[in-house]
Design brief:
The chain is mostly helical. It has one domain. It has 17 helices and no strands. It has helices spanning 3-31, 34-44, 52-82, 87-95, 101-111, 117-129, 134-146, 149-159, 161-184, 193-199, 213-245, 251-258, 265-273, 280-292, 297-309, 312-318, 324-348.
Length: 349
């Protein structure tokens, strides 16, 4: 870059650095006070969280800005990263020379990211836009909500280390194998056209080692406008559905068949869990209550995994990036893995 170009770019770079610094501080300030914000609005509306409606409103007010903040921040960073690495190069790096290495890494990353299913979607979309292989991104999407430190600590505290370790191993196995299978099916053609265009390098972000930082920041912001602008209505719709059903879990009805030694108990628990939506911390107390009412542990854990890894709100948000065939394949592969987990737990324990 010439001296004249540097002189022109310097004020612009300074302006971008100030904007990013201020935006980052605001991002963390808002993100860390979302619960207080939701509490305040619910109190202002004179609603009680002890009611289904009050809890639904609180859930929507908390989860909507959380997912939008995550999506905006992750997509901006991914947009900048993509100016250093072309999608083809990223895809080659994370595919792994050995079969399944990328799936193992992605599933392991999911353990340390305590996201619910809808919160994991922004990073999933960011991975796709950066050229990460489809099967690898699905390993993360499955692992992040289903196997995280919150679930493991709570399971350890209530059921002991054997149950926690078995859940960790089976959850990772489902995430790795499901992602591997989806990758082997080569279903990239069932990504929405705009995602395929980004992966093919036809989007607004292009890798160029000679780009200035101003250009990289501008590319990141263009990435945000392109992706968030397309996805946000689906986020509102998905979380709205999740809020409407959040907190309502017919424990007595579920316990009535979850404790029975019949083959259909595990599939029924999975089907019942899909329409519901919460995170691991929110579902564990329900798991404990069901166990206390005599439900079989494997059946209850299959229900738990379906709630946090196959939620209907998650599917609605994913619909903007994935075509129905790919969503159905994802749901079918993961549901099969969850069924196996449920039967294994009931057999072993």
């Amino acid at each position: 870059m010439s001296a004249q170009s540097q002189a022109i770019a310097s004020p612009a770079l300074s302006r971008w650095l100030v904007i990013i610094a201020v935006s980052t501080l605001l991002w963390f300030a808002v993100y860390s006070h979302l619960s207080e914000f939701a509490d305040a609005v619910v109190a202002t509306l004179q609603l009680s969280r002890d009611t289904h409606f009050g809890e639904a409103v609180h859930f929507f007010l908390f989860d909507t800005p959380k997912v939008l903040l995550l999506l905006t921040g992750i997509v901006f960073v991914m947009g900048i990263v993509q100016t250093f690495f072309a999608p083809e190069r990223t895809r080659a790096l994370l595919s792994g020379k050995r079969v399944g290495v990328g799936n193992v890494l992605a599933a392991s990353l999911g353990i340390v990211t305590p996201f619910c299913s809808c919160s994991a979607v922004p990073l999933f979309i960011g991975f796709l836009s950066a050229g990460v292989p489809l099967g690898v991104t699905f390993s993360f999407l499955i692992s992040a909500p289903m196997v995280n430190e919150v679930a493991l600590v709570l399971l350890f505290g209530m059921f002991g280390w054997k149950v926690a370790v078995l859940y960790l191993g089976m959850g990772l196995l489902v995430a790795i194998v499901a992602g591997f299978v989806i990758g082997k099916l080569r279903m990239e053609r069932f990504l929405e056209d705009w995602v395929q265009q980004i992966q093919a390098g036809q989007g607004v972000v292009h890798a160029d080692a000679a780009m200035s930082w101003v250009e990289r920041f501008e590319a990141g912001w263009d990435h945000v406008k392109q992706i968030v602008g397309k996805v946000w209505p689906y986020i509102l719709l998905g979380i709205g559905l999740g809020a409407a059903i959040h907190g309502y879990v017919p424990e007595d009805f579920m316990a009535s068949f979850m404790g029975k030694d019949v083959w259909w108990a595990v599939p029924a628990a999975v089907l019942l869990g899909v329409p519901m939506y919460t995170n691991a911390a929110g579902i564990i107390p329900i798991v404990q209550a069901l166990i206390g009412k005599g439900a079989a542990l494997g059946t209850v854990l299959a229900f738990m995994m379906a709630v946090i890894a196959l939620s209907a709100p998650e599917m609605i948000i994913l619909r903007k990036a994935l075509k129905p065939t790919l969503i159905a394949t994802f749901a079918g592969v993961v549901a099969t893995g969850i069924l196996l987990v449920g039967y294994v737990f009931n057999w072993v324990l």
